[in-house]
Amino acid sequence: MRKVLLVDDAAFMRMRCAKLLTAEGFQVAEAANGREAVEQYEAVRPDLVLMDITMPEMDGITATREITQRDRAANVIMVSALGQQSMVMEAIRAGARDFVVKPYEPDRVLGAIRRIFPQ
After folding, report:
1. CB under 8 Å to 81, separation ≥6 — which residues?
2. Predicted pLDDT at 83
3. How would DSSP label each residue in 45-70?
4. SS3 of residue 44 by DSSP
5. Which of 56, 76, 101, 109 has the least C-beta neighbours within 10 A?
């Protein structure tokens, strides 16, 4: 069973996406900000991270940079709101492999995951 670390400061967004991922057979861990994401990454060693960009304490780009510096093989998919395209490009330079636009749409989230883990 693949493990996904879901990182978003909005609890309802984590809950919504966690429900989708669990139904698809993933084991889900959660973090509410980038600092927690880095800590959880070390503790859980997930196969994939779904990372929001804008969060308190540490933003998703900084967290992605820290995670990919520690683990070059890390699979991070950024999650952005509309209008954050320039930040998405910065996230890709920081090591993210793909991005999904909020709100979470099941087909887009699962499509991004399948691009990283083709069946």
Report:
1. 53, 54, 101, 102
2. 62
3. --SEEEEESS-SSS-HHHHHHHHHHH
4. helix
5. 56
Helix axes 106-116, 11-23, angle to 10 degrees: 60
In angstroms, the CA 23 to CA 55 distance is 26
Prediction pTM value: 0.92
- Would you state the structure tokens that stand for residue 5, as one six-digit string? 């670390």
The single-letter code of the amino acid at 106 is P
pLDDT band at 79 (very low <50, low <70, confident <90, very high): confident
27-78, pLDDT tens digit by residue? 999 999 999 999 999 999 999 999 999 899 999 999 999 999 999 999 999 9
Q: Quick one: which of 84, 100, 83, 96 has its CA closest to 37?
A: 96
Which residue, chain included where needed, has tokens 């709100």? 103
DSSP code at position 104: P
* Ramachandran region, residue 33 (left: φ > 0; alpha: ψ -120 to 50; beta: rest): beta
